[in-house]
């Protein structure tokens, strides 16, 4: 059966339709989820898309974290539901404490959109098992607040436990500590990624189709689990 | 009634005090205009009415100086069945397939962007997006032609970063890819930067909306943000202080944008359209409620009763004339069948947008507005919306034009040796107008919505609008104010030709035109002459190319003291392509592909980038326009693109062949070996700006078919070299060689040096200094801060 991947729309979500398209291209069935509806409709995994949820007022992701759907997602993630947060979704996951650390204003203080080189450091999460470890990919980055910050203990922990999923290469676009582009939780089912894999899924529209691997990975993960 | 109710002027009051002095001059109305208002009403206007007339009869809203000229766009336009809505609507709508239509328009937000660069630019984007939304379309992309003073001028350092951040801040937050535009520097824009914004949207043909307030009994609903004092006087000289000098201080007349509300407004409107819940819709932009109420009722020939107290306000102390004049952003006016009102309110609530019924449509032919139970406005709406004054202003050719045209750049000293040509090429590539614009464009999201096929720095932005069929559109906006200064008639045609060529170079068939006409004061006969000439040129050009103007915008009064900007007609061309898979990129990509030059090069250097950069010279006559040749070139480019004959195509314009080679080689880091045509002087070959030319690369095996295609169309074609994927250098045989690294350093270094280096390098493993912020130095062993708690740790 086709895996059902929920894509949440918060007020201010922008890349929700793009994420749904990526799920579809990967072979999954995108299921729209609504911020105010706690029901997850039995989805097999969830994507929190990019954008400016609730206008990014207060702090990016700070309000979205309290939405009805997030309560259900936090609970389900604890039970192993694969959850991917892209850009604003990553910020929401940090605010919801599903992932450690925080994403702050880019060091150079500008919004930055460019085709970014990444190295996949952990190819065993629910969302990256289709990559080779240390595989280099190109995925667009576009954010104003993508500078990953955490205290030294957290960073050391992430490094030691192999929880840094991807690092920026050939230039760090926002000043992230340890060149961090993506991290995972200890169980490997929750991943936050600052670049946008959903924008690298078609030859015509992306700088590569490397992003597709994120979405096919979760389908493989779900297939293997069944 | 308490005494406070008499602090505002009513219709009843106006009848009782016919001779009361009114500040019409301070509001920008002439005496004869004021007399006409009295004539229309048969009494003196109330304070609110006077405010409304002053706004609606302002240059910005009434086009009173430009109307007599703009008529040519309609009169000369080729008749097109594809046009579903044209001039006079919020934006022109063009049918691009059986069931899909596209709407696009460009507008200016020049003055606000000088006063407050970030908000001025941001609300410029917001305003044009609502115009597109009002036609029933989902906005799918934006573009922004920007013009600033000299790049190294102090004030440019204030204006440019703010404008760019504002365009990005608003557009990015709306989820609209920014797919192109212009960044131009010229001292003439010191004090008058031009911030133009273009938006394009897509709609099913049967979802086209209109602004007409039909159906007496239908409800008038205000949707979106609350109304505040921001933006009052944005379109006229209206300011609250004029009404009462002892009253509150003048408020800034620049609006403040909230893109988050606009995003919700977009989604809620699209849901309303999709479910067929509304009768009419109009955006609130310049002139706010005044414009929306009068235009919707005038368009339908109906009337309206509005209770202004129902308008949700940010500040309770606002006067009725302030509510009517406010230009608070992110608002739309809906006309709703009472039976569907609940559903409309429910949709708005779901998206978290305020929706309020503020009145209803009547059959009286009068717009009647009440405030605290008393009538403050009672006017025929058409008198505001349609019957404003129209002037045929005096015109005179600028006195200096003859001398200016006689001062030709062709007589200037020019580089002769290979070394000098090499230096000139590098100098031009590094000049502010020709250099890499990534410093600007990286602040814009070009990927969102997932349909961007091409974006800046490509010839055109290309957007896929149908994922099933691959149907797409291409858009380019161009203008060359130096050319327009030397010859406004041909300058406008040249802008049109360049945008048209750019759309074709990307592989699309040009379909329709929009324009933003930025000029000085219409009260200056020399400016008025420039304007009239430019409009005439653009209308003639569109007729010759067979594509209609579908809408546009006029921005006057771009002058500081008596010094006007160069006349700056900015022209946008929309093209369509059956399948975006056949789009043609601008950069050399295929190793050993043949490089060909299309069109004819003659010695045309006046007004050129070379004359400006190397001699600070502006004089002579701009390059000749040949629209017949442009049509042929476009046909060849489009057809060759569809047949796969082209691996790249790049239009030749500013900086000529030299700059096109710079951009084509650097795009994908592929070198080129070039042999300049023997019959041309090398300098002329490299730097002339003759029009109707393009630089293409043709994969081996396609050259014969392509050259035959050119011959069939009578288009001159010259093989000038080949792509070299290994050399990583631009080699011009017998003249010079430049490594791509040196070229790239020159081309990319300029804007970061001027506006601040944005490091692209990883900060070499910066030690995590956050510890010192979050953790006290003593004692050394402390837990992580609560904000960094990791539940999995």
TrEMBL record, chain A:
<keyword id="KW-0547">Nucleotide-binding</keyword>
<comment type="pathway">
    <text>Purine metabolism; IMP biosynthesis via de novo pathway; 5-amino-1-(5-phospho-D-ribosyl)imidazole from N(2)-formyl-N(1)-(5-phospho-D-ribosyl)glycinamide: step 1/2.</text>
</comment>
<keyword id="KW-0067">ATP-binding</keyword>
<feature type="active site">
    <location>
        <position position="198"/>
    </location>
</feature>
<keyword id="KW-0658">Purine biosynthesis</keyword>
<dbReference type="Pfam" id="PF13507">
    <property type="entry name" value="GATase_5"/>
</dbReference>
<comment type="function">
    <text>Part of the phosphoribosylformylglycinamidine synthase complex involved in the purines biosynthetic pathway. Catalyzes the ATP-dependent conversion of formylglycinamide ribonucleotide (FGAR) and glutamine to yield formylglycinamidine ribonucleotide (FGAM) and glutamate. The FGAM synthase complex is composed of three subunits. PurQ produces an ammonia molecule by converting glutamine to glutamate. PurL transfers the ammonia molecule to FGAR to form FGAM in an ATP-dependent manner.</text>
</comment>
<dbReference type="InterPro" id="IPR010075">
    <property type="entry name" value="PRibForGlyAmidine_synth_PurQ"/>
</dbReference>
<keyword id="KW-0436">Ligase</keyword>
<protein>
    <recommendedName>
        <fullName>Phosphoribosylformylglycinamidine synthase subunit PurQ</fullName>
        <ecNumber>6.3.5.3</ecNumber>
        <ecNumber>3.5.1.2</ecNumber>
    </recommendedName>
</protein>
<keyword id="KW-0378">Hydrolase</keyword>
<dbReference type="InterPro" id="IPR029062">
    <property type="entry name" value="Class_I_gatase-like"/>
</dbReference>
<keyword id="KW-0963">Cytoplasm</keyword>
<keyword id="KW-0315">Glutamine amidotransferase</keyword>
<feature type="active site">
    <location>
        <position position="196"/>
    </location>
</feature>
<comment type="subunit">
    <text>Part of the FGAM synthase complex composed of 1 PurL, 1 PurQ and 2 PurS subunits.</text>
</comment>
<feature type="active site" description="Nucleophile">
    <location>
        <position position="87"/>
    </location>
</feature>
Automatic annotation (TrEMBL), chain B:
<dbReference type="InterPro" id="IPR016188">
    <property type="entry name" value="PurM-like_N"/>
</dbReference>
<dbReference type="InterPro" id="IPR041609">
    <property type="entry name" value="PurL_linker"/>
</dbReference>
<dbReference type="Pfam" id="PF18072">
    <property type="entry name" value="FGAR-AT_linker"/>
</dbReference>
<feature type="domain" description="PurM-like N-terminal">
    <location>
        <begin position="88"/>
        <end position="202"/>
    </location>
</feature>
<dbReference type="InterPro" id="IPR036676">
    <property type="entry name" value="PurM-like_C_sf"/>
</dbReference>
<feature type="binding site">
    <location>
        <position position="555"/>
    </location>
    <ligand>
        <name>substrate</name>
    </ligand>
</feature>
<feature type="active site">
    <location>
        <position position="60"/>
    </location>
</feature>
<keyword id="KW-0479">Metal-binding</keyword>
<feature type="binding site">
    <location>
        <position position="63"/>
    </location>
    <ligand>
        <name>ATP</name>
    </ligand>
</feature>
<keyword id="KW-0436">Ligase</keyword>
<feature type="region of interest" description="Disordered">
    <location>
        <begin position="1"/>
        <end position="25"/>
    </location>
</feature>
<comment type="pathway">
    <text>Purine metabolism; IMP biosynthesis via de novo pathway; 5-amino-1-(5-phospho-D-ribosyl)imidazole from N(2)-formyl-N(1)-(5-phospho-D-ribosyl)glycinamide: step 1/2.</text>
</comment>
<feature type="binding site">
    <location>
        <begin position="108"/>
        <end position="111"/>
    </location>
    <ligand>
        <name>substrate</name>
    </ligand>
</feature>
<keyword id="KW-0658">Purine biosynthesis</keyword>
<dbReference type="GO" id="GO:0004642">
    <property type="term" value="F:phosphoribosylformylglycinamidine synthase activity"/>
</dbReference>
<feature type="binding site">
    <location>
        <position position="283"/>
    </location>
    <ligand>
        <name>Mg(2+) 2</name>
    </ligand>
</feature>
<feature type="binding site">
    <location>
        <position position="105"/>
    </location>
    <ligand>
        <name>ATP</name>
    </ligand>
</feature>
<feature type="domain" description="PurM-like C-terminal">
    <location>
        <begin position="215"/>
        <end position="371"/>
    </location>
</feature>
<feature type="binding site">
    <location>
        <position position="552"/>
    </location>
    <ligand>
        <name>ATP</name>
    </ligand>
</feature>
<feature type="active site" description="Proton acceptor">
    <location>
        <position position="109"/>
    </location>
</feature>
<keyword id="KW-0547">Nucleotide-binding</keyword>
<feature type="binding site">
    <location>
        <position position="553"/>
    </location>
    <ligand>
        <name>Mg(2+) 1</name>
    </ligand>
</feature>
């Amino acid at each position: 059966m086709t895996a059902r991947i929920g894509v949440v729309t918060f007020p201010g979500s922008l890349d929700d339709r793009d994420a749904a398209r990526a799920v579809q291209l990967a072979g999954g069935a995108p299921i729209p989820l609504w911020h105010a509806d706690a029901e997850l409709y039995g989805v097999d995994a969830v994507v929190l898309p990019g954008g400016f949820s609730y206008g990014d007022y207060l702090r990016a992701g700070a309000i979205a974290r309290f939405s009805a759907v997030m309560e259900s997602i936090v609970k389900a993630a604890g039970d192993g539901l694969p959850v991917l947060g892209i850009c604003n979704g990553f910020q929401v996951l940090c605010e919801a404490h599903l992932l450690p650390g925080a994403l702050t204003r880019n060091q150079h203080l500008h919004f930055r959109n460019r085709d970014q080189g990444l190295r996949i450091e952990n190819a065993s999460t629910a969302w990256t098992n289709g990559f080779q470890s240390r595989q280099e990919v190109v995925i667009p980055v576009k954010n104003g607040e993508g500078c990953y910050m955490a205290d030294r203990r957290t960073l050391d922990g992430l490094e030691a436990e192999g929880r840094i999923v991807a690092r920026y290469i050939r230039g760090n676009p926002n000043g992230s500590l340890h060149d961090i582009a993506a991290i995972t939780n200890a169980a490997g089912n929750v991943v936050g990624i600052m670049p946008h894999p959903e924008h690298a899924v078609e030859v015509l529209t992306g700088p590569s189709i490397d992003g597709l691997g994120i979405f096919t990975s979760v389908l493989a993960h779900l297939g293997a689990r069944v | 009634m308490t005494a406070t109710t008499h602090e505002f002027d009513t219709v009843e009051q106006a009848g009782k005090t016919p001779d009361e002095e009114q500040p019409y001059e301070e509001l920008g109305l002439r005496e004869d205009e004021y007399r006409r208002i009295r004539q229309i009403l048969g009494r003196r206007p109330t304070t609110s009415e006077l405010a409304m007339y002053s706004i609606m009869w302002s240059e910005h809203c009434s086009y009173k100086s430009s109307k007599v000229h703009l008529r040519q766009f309609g009169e000369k336009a080729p008749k097109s069945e594809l046009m579903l809505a044209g001039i006079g609507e919020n934006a022109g709508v063009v049918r691009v397939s059986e069931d899909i239509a596209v709407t696009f328009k460009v507008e200016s937000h020049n003055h606000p962007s000088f006063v407050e660069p970030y908000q001025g630019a941001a609300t410029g984007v917001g305003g044009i997006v609502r115009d597109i939304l009002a036609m029933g379309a989902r906005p799918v992309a934006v573009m922004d032609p920007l013009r600033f003073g000299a790049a190294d001028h102090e004030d440019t350092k204030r204006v440019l970063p703010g404008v760019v951040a504002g365009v990005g801040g608003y557009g990015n937050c709306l989820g609209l890819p920014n797919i192109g535009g212009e960044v131009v520097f010229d001292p003439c824009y010191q004090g008058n930067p031009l911030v133009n914004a273009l938006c394009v949207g897509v709609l099913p043909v049967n979802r086209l909306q209109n602004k007409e307030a039909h159906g007496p009994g239908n409800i008038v609903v205000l949707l979106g943000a609350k109304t505040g004092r921001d933006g009052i006087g944005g379109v006229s000289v209206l300011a609250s202080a004029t009404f009462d000098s002892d009253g509150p201080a003048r408020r800034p007349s620049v609006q403040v944008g909230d893109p988050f509300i606009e995003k919700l407004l977009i989604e809620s409107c699209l849901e309303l359209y999709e479910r067929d819940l509304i009768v009419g819709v109009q955006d609130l932009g310049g002139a706010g409620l005044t414009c929306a109420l009068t235009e919707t009722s005038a368009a339908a020939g109906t009337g309206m009763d509005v209770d202004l107290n129902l308008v949700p306000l940010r500040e309770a102390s606002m006067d009725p004339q302030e509510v009517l004049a406010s230009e608070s952003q992110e608002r739309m006016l809906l006309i709703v069948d009472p039976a569907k009102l609940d559903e409309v309110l429910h949709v708005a609530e779901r998206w978290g947008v305020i929706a309020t019924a503020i009145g209803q449509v009547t059959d009286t032919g009068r717009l009647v507005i009440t405030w605290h139970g008393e009538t403050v406005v009672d006017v025929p709406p058409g008198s505001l919306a349609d019957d404003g004054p129209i002037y045929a202003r005096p015109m005179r050719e600028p006195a200096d034009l003859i001398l200016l045209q006689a001062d030709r750049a062709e007589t200037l000293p020019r580089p002769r040796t290979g070394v000098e040509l090499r230096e000139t090429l590098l100098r031009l590539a590094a000049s502010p107008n020709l250099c890499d614009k990534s410093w600007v464009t990286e602040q814009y999201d070009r990927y969102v919505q997932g349909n961007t096929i091409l974006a800046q720095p490509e010839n055109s932005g290309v957007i896929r609008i149908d994922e099933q069929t691959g149907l797409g559109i291409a858009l380019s906006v161009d203008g060359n104010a130096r050319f327009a200064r030397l010859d406004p008639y041909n300058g406008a045609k040249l802008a049109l030709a360049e945008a048209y060529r750019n759309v074709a170079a990307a592989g699309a068939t040009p379909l329709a035109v929009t324009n933003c006409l930025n000029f000085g004061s219409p009260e200056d006969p020399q400016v008025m002459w420039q304007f009239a000439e430019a409009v005439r040129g653009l209308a003639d050009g569109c007729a010759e190319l067979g594509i209609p103007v579908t809408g546009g915008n006029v921005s006057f009064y771009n002058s500081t003291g008596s010094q006007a900007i160069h006349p700056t007609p900015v022209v946008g061309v929309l093209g369509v392509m059956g399948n975006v898979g056949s789009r043609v990129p601008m950069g050399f990509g295929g190793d050993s592909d043949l490089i060909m030059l299309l069109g004819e090069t003659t010695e045309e250097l006046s007004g050129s980038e070379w004359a400006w950069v190397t001699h600070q010279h502006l004089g002579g006559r701009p390059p000749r326009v040949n629209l017949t040749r442009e049509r042929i070139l476009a046909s060849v480019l489009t057809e060759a693109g569809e047949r796969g004959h082209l691996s790249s195509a790049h239009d030749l314009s500013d900086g000529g062949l030299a700059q096109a080679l710079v951009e084509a080689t650097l795009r994908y880091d592929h070198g080129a070996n070039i042999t300049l045509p023997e019959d041309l002087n090398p300098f002329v070959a490299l730097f002339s700006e003759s029009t109707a030319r393009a630089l293409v690369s043709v994969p081996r095996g396609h050259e014969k078919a392509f050259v035959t295609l050119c011959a069939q169309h009578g288009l001159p074609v010259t093989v000038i070299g080949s792509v070299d994927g290994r050399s990583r250098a631009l080699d011009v045989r017998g003249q010079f060689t430049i490594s791509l690294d040196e070229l790239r350093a020159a081309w990319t270094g300029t804007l970061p040096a001027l506006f601040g280096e944005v490091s692209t390098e990883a900060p070499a493993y910066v030690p995590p200094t956050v510890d010192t912020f979050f953790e006290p130095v003593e004692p050394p062993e402390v837990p992580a801060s609560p904000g960094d708690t990791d539940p999995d740790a």
